[in-house]
Specification:
Blueprint lengths: L9 H9 L3 H7 L16 H33 L2 E3 L2 E3 L2 H12 L18 H14 L1 H7 L3 H9 L2 H12 L5 E4 L15 E5 L4 E12 L5 E7 L10 E7 L4 E6 L10 E14 L5 H38 L1 E2 L2 E2 L4 H40 L5 H40 L10 H9 L8 H13 L4 H8 L6 H26 L2 H30 L4 H24 L3 H4 L1 H5 L2
Parallel strand pairs: 3-6
Antiparallel strand pairs: 1-2, 4-5, 5-9, 6-7, 7-9, 8-9, 10-11
Helix pairs in contact: 1-10, 2-10, 3-4, 3-5, 5-6, 5-9, 5-10, 7-8, 7-9, 9-10, 9-11, 9-12, 10-11, 10-16, 10-17, 11-12, 11-13, 13-16, 15-16, 15-17, 16-17
Length: about 575
């Protein structure tokens, strides 16, 4: 019997049921008033949870029964480009058809456009399972943020024309941001957008590179709309459709995620429409897209980690050496235990992150539809916006680095067989490698998160969790996390007092790691408080991270500039 990737992973359901999504769902369902107009809308929070549980079980069944068995063939066949036309692998085409038939291509879109109106949290759980089945498919299924961006920032006419097509699976999307000379530095984008007044029409001209699913029917394009500008203030966001003037020059021959075409595009006077306001393409709309992309890739990475870990665990039980299964050897089982605990911590962080993203989006939506937004509404949107802005890069950094480590360990546990294509371990390793690069490298996630860390944005959340009614072992573990938090706070003050840009940049990674370790320690304790069976995992996570916290603290507060002063001499060796 095939696996159900939701029913066989109790941790996803545990997070769904214990996150505290009451306010998220209530606001998204307009105090459940949508039930008057849509028969499938929930009438209460319990009804909503039951609906999410059922749809996640359906996704889990599709992943286990259909998508996962095709993954090896998809990886082998890959996408191909012939004469400018991109063709997905046969298995990818079947996967997309299955997901469309299950009405899963407009998960977050409002019901009036044919969507499920599900929160980001539930959608991310789906993307995690899809990624566990086939990481490359997530790069197609997970691009639903394209439609969500049009929903949030487009005109009603644009919503009416585009969103029902996305929800029905008739249109797919891509975000065309990166250019040959503008990778992470999107302020350097040069693709031109010019407005023809006679035709009342925008046109796009230029090149884009490394565009995931660039062969899509609908593209969101970052382009320079203001003549003579060189920075982000001259960029706007446009939507265009695939046509004869939009050429796929080639697709990249990649290490992994072969089922997802990564395209080089040439725009030759492609008709386009402005999305939102001019000049806000980078500062407002791309930042929103990137926040969504961070969450999506975190889910993708977590799915790969789950797949790699399960595969390694299965092999360790089956493979015998020296007269016993290798799972019996401490060097093997300790690796598997450590990875499992880290996956649980990463999942706790990811879904705490999506909860804050959901609340930020809910308040943003409330403000946009309010005749006169109150000061309290704006305060709530700002507060959740700040926490989401720190949590999303921390989650991406943690989940993607973890995926690479778990996939690496999976091959190690397989030994020489893990290096062979006969086993999926090497595919997980190849697929994991891109996750901490695209949609912002881990180093850029540290840059994105460090401002919030220095401002102690997450302190109220940490304080709230530190004051939960822990007893016995959990109280002792909570005290250890509290001590780690004190070290973190002193490290932040030390770096702030140095007032040295180079030192600040050098220590950003360590501060991000400390923040993540402390926050995940509290999250693991909160989970253990709800389920006593999770005490052992919380204990292992906290005992493993305490020495790392201490090490980072000692390095940061040493004030040692030798790594800066001696860098040229070391690099010259």
């Amino acid at each position: 019997m095939a696996e159900n990737f939701y029913l066989d992973n109790a941790d996803i359901k545990f997070n769904l049921m214990n996150l505290g999504l009451e306010d998220v769902v209530r606001m998204r369902e307009a105090d459940y008033a949508q039930a008057r107009d849509f028969p499938d809308a929930p009438v209460s929070f319990a009804d909503a949870l039951d609906s999410y549980d059922r749809v996640l079980a359906m996704v889990g069944e599709i992943c286990g029964d259909l998508i996962a068995p095709r993954a090896a063939d998809v990886d082998e066949e890959g996408a191909r480009c012939e004469g400018g036309k991109v063709t997905y692998a046969k298995g990818t085409q079947e996967n997309l058809r299955n997901l469309s038939q299950a009405q899963l291509m407009g998960v977050m879109l409002p019901r009036r456009y044919g969507g499920l109106n599900a929160p980001v949290t539930v959608y991310t759980m789906m993307t995690e399972m899809v990624s566990r089945a086939d990481a490359s498919l997530q790069n197609l299924f997970g691009l639903q943020d394209i439609a969500e961006t049009i929903n949030r920032f487009g005109t009603e006419d644009q919503r009416q024309r585009f969103l029902p097509r996305f929800a029905a699976g008739e249109a797919d999307g891509a975000m065309a941001l990166t250019e040959p000379e503008a990778g992470s530095d999107l302020q350097a984008v040069q693709l031109k957008a010019h407005f023809d007044r006679e035709k009342n029409q925008w046109y796009l001209n230029g090149m884009k590179r490394f565009i995931t699913n660039g062969c899509a029917k609908v593209l969101l394009v970052l382009a320079r709309s203001e003549e003579g500008t060189r920075d982000g203030r001259g960029l706007s966001m446009f939507v265009c459709e695939r046509g004869p003037n939009l050429l796929v020059r080639r697709i990249e021959n990649k290490m992994g995620i072969h089922g997802s075409p990564t395209c080089e595009l040439q725009f030759n006077n492609v008709p386009a429409e402005l999305v939102g306001e001019r000049r806000r393409g980078l500062t407002r709309y791309v930042m929103s897209l990137m926040n969504g992309a961070r969450v999506a890739i975190s889910g993708q990475a977590l799915g790969v980690a789950e797949a790699a870990w399960r595969n390694a665990l299965k092999y360790a039980h089956e493979r015998e050496q020296f007269g016993k299964p290798i799972i019996k050897f401490p060097a093997v089982y300790d690796m598997l235990v450590s990875d499992r605990v880290q996956i649980l911590a990463a999942r706790a962080l990811l879904y705490e992150t999506t909860r804050h993203v959901d609340m930020r989006d809910n308040w943003d939506e409330a403000i946009r539809h309010a005749a006169a937004p109150s000061a309290e509404m704006r305060q709530q949107e700002k507060a959740y916006g700040r926490t989401a802005a720190e949590l999303t890069p921390l989650a991406k950094a943690f989940c993607t680095e973890l995926a690479n480590r778990v996939a690496y360990n999976g091959i190690q546990i397989h030994g020489g067989t893990g290096f062979m294509k006969d086993f999926p371990a090497e595919r997980y390793y190849r697929d994991a490698r891109i996750t901490n690069i695209y949609e912002g490298t881990t180093q850029l996630q540290h840059v994105a998160a460090i401002g919030g860390i220095m401002q102690r944005v997450l302190d109220p959340l940490m304080t709230e969790m530190s004051l939960l009614p822990y007893e016995g072992k959990l109280r002792r573990l909570a005290s250890a996390v509290d001590m780690g938090r004190e070290k973190l706070q002193r490290a932040v003050k030390f770096v702030e007092a140095r007032n040295d840009g180079d030192y600040f940049d050098l220590m950003a990674r360590r501060l991000c790691d400390m923040e993540t370790q402390v926050l995940c320690g509290y999250l693991m304790l909160r989970h253990a408080l709800k389920d006593k069976g999770r005490e052992a995992a919380a204990e292992r996570y906290i005992l493993d991270t305490q020495p790392l916290l201490a090490m980072h603290y000692e390095v940061i507060t040493s004030g040692d500039f030798s790594l800066i002063d001696n860098r040229e001499a070391i690099l010259a060796l």
